[in-house]
Amino acid sequence: MPVTKAVIPAAGLGTRFLPATKAVPKEMLPVVDRPAIEYVVEEASRVGLRDVLLVTSRSKKAVEDHFDRETEIEAALERKGDEVRLRRVRASAELAEVHSVRQQSPRGLGHAVLCAAAHVGNEPFAVLLGDDLIDERDPLLAEMLAVQERFGGSVIALMEVPREQVSMYGVATVRPIPSGPDDRYGIVRIEDLVEKPPIEEAPSNLAIIGRYVLAPEIFDVLRETPPGRGGEIQITDALRTLARREQEDPGAAPVHGVVFTGRRYDTGDRVDYLKAVIRLACERADLGPELYPWIEEYVAAGGPKSGLS
């Protein structure tokens, strides 16, 4: 069954960005001149997943509103003849058919995914986390969909991280499998997973990043998954159950990993968020020619001590 739906959990409190996120959802923080969540919905739409479900909370109405039409602003831009800004304002509403469901309490990523069960039904689906932005030039999600079509089951995105950072992620035990001629990234079979292990206990430095293509069986497993690390229902624990089930029963749906080597921007960390804004702005034709020379001058003059403005 082809994958047609994407689920984007967006119910988190955004505490790392307080006080900016006291009244503004973290998903609406701008990355250059678009909110982070728009990049994620655009990524799903680009690979044909135009049925998008946002899992939000009562404080996230602004996220839902962003993907609706804003007739007053559009009318004002039309009167001014500002076609460029008019296209930009309308773009978010035209990306996909966006739905929403509320997660009543913050009980973890696994619970957020479970909130999507009624909308998804009995078919595979993608999950995209809003903290991870994948550069549009790197076809990670397209590759994951191709792997899921080839092998069935579930597929998770993995990335090598420095050993000292493994305790910040879910970490995988894997078995490499032969790559096909069209595979852009390495493909592995998942044998085990552990959520945020101590550095000395981590089975590898292959960390789960925020892209998943999940078989519908995940919902039944999540319903039976007890709270794990942090007292929350972890998607990593549910995927571990699926991976171990496949080892015991060769007829069960497998779990594969795609080892991503492209450009990823972690907007959930303040410093990495700023790096993403600077990098993406420098690469834009309308901003880079002015911004990049200023950054070079700023660095050459001694950075914070330079007095440049």
From TrEMBL:
Return the InterPro entries for the record: GalU_uridylyltTrfase_bac/arc, NTP_transferase_dom, Nucleotide-diphossugar_trans
- Its EC top class is transferase
Q: Which GO terms describe its molecular function?
A: UTP:glucose-1-phosphate uridylyltransferase activity
Q: Name one Pfam family in it.
A: NTP_transferase
- List the catalysed reactions: alpha-D-glucose 1-phosphate + UTP + H(+) = UDP-alpha-D-glucose + diphosphate
Whether Nucleotidyltransferase counts among this entry's keywords is yes
Q: Does the keyword Ubl conjugation apply?
A: no
What does the record list as coiled-coil region(s)?
A: none
EC number assigned by the record: 2.7.7.9
Q: Which residues form the Nucleotidyl transferase domain?
A: 5-249
The alphabetical list of record keywords is: Nucleotidyltransferase, Transferase
Superkingdom of this protein's organism: Bacteria
Spell out the family assignment given in the record's similarity comment.
Answer: Belongs to the UDPGP type 2 family.
PANTHER family registered for this protein in UniProt:
UTP--GLUCOSE-1-PHOSPHATE URIDYLYLTRANSFERASE (PTHR43197:SF1)
Q: Report the protein name in the record.
A: UTP--glucose-1-phosphate uridylyltransferase
Taxonomic lineage of the native organism? Bacteria, Bacillati, Actinomycetota, Actinomycetes, Frankiales
Q: Which gene encodes it?
A: galU
